[in-house]
Amino acid sequence: MDGETQSLESIINTNLGGKDLEEFNRIYYGRKNHHEVDLKESSIAAAKDNDFEIAAYAFPAKKESTRPPRIVKVAVIQHSIAVPTDRPVNEQKNAILAKVKKIIDVAGQEGVNILCFQELWNMPFAFCTREKQPWCEFAESAEDGPTTRFLRELCIKYAMVIVSSILERDEKHADIIWNTAVVISDTGSVIGKHRKNHIPRVGDFNESNYYMEGNTGHPVFATRYGKIGINICFGRHHVLNWMMFGQNGAEIVFNPSATIAAEAGSEYMWNIEARNAAITNCYFTAAINRVGYEEFPNEFTSADGKPAHKDLGLFYGSSYFCGPDGVRCPGLSRNRDGLLIAVVDLNMNRQIRDRRCYYMTQRLDMYVESLKRVLDLDFKPQVVNETEK
């Protein structure tokens, strides 16, 4: 990834300073001070030794008279694959697990309570190839597959809740495949799972070659540390998807993703969507994206008029957190593995709801009736023309 821009933050910090940098931070991030959190020297050393970035930021709430603070330490991991995609499936998977375990260990020693990975973190994002083999071999049971078993031990060791996005093999229903986020408790038990609601079909890139829209609705998982939802990747483009996690009581919604910086990619939208969702729904959001180029053995096309190629494009990382007030932290880099930690006070969610009254004023009744009409076969858009009386 030589020659790639490191991050938006690196551009800003190189070219701005003093009052100009403070003003940029105030206008863009929502506060002049990023509220950086001190990290352990051992964590910084481990990150250096294992070549990953580490950063931590606080999202404090105002002190209340009737409720104590609800401080939760949340983290996300972004990373590249570990070995070439022409290696055997188990070798690829085990190499990723070994690599990421070093980052999880650092999260554990930093006292992280809830950790989320990027979309389908334990495999290459092979769906661009449209080949079934060997990629379907990465699919495994959500409840007792090797990845879940691997993570259970770490959940117990660090008293940590982990959200693990995997390719699920549903052994109870004809071995069909789903794109699934598994929520593993700090006790090591599987609390539940959520299957991806919205499946992209963009040109030649069509994930429904492998799995279809999920059937789990918008579950919110009540963990020891707070209520969490998972809006998997393409679901971030759908406003109602974000909304329903809020309606079901989510306090933090993770967006594990795999998205690229190509011409038809999403990088210019990346800094907006999870942030908009946090503002609109008055909850914390975490946007997580993978890193690097992933080259496959066989060429494929992407319906973009370009010659066949072997990689989809740059997965640009840039993972970040945002608070319910719309204040966000700097993102991780575009081209390095990383661990990003947020120390959040969940009391902020209700404080912002009381202040902005979005839920009180949202008019769900009106939209329900409007959507019913939209779904009618004889629907006529509510358009008023100048010539009409």
Automatic annotation (TrEMBL):
Q: Which GO terms describe its molecular function?
A: beta-ureidopropionase activity
Domain of life where this protein originates = Eukaryota
Q: What class of enzyme is it?
A: hydrolase
* Entry EC no(s): 3.5.1.6
Give the CN hydrolase domain ranges. Answer: 72-346
- Pfam entry (one): CN_hydrolase
State whether keyword Transport applies: no
Q: What's in the keyword line of the UniProt record? A: Hydrolase
InterPro entries according to UniProt? Aliph_Amidase/BUP, C-N_Hydrolase, C-N_Hydrolase_sf
- Name its pathway: Amino-acid biosynthesis; beta-alanine biosynthesis
Q: Which reaction is catalysed here?
A: 3-(carbamoylamino)propanoate + H2O + 2 H(+) = beta-alanine + NH4(+) + CO2; 3-(carbamoylamino)-2-methylpropanoate + H2O + 2 H(+) = (R)-3-amino-2-methylpropanoate + NH4(+) + CO2
- UniProt-listed SUPFAM superfamilies: Carbon-nitrogen hydrolase
Q: Name one GO biological process term.
A: beta-alanine biosynthetic process via 3-ureidopropionate
Q: Which PANTHER family match?
A: BETA-UREIDOPROPIONASE (PTHR43674:SF2), NITRILASE C965.09-RELATED (PTHR43674)
Give the record's family classification: Belongs to the carbon-nitrogen hydrolase superfamily. BUP family.
Q: Would you tell me the protein name for this molecule? A: Beta-ureidopropionase
Name the species this protein comes from. Danaus plexippus plexippus
Lineage, uppermost ranks: Eukaryota, Metazoa, Ecdysozoa, Arthropoda, Hexapoda
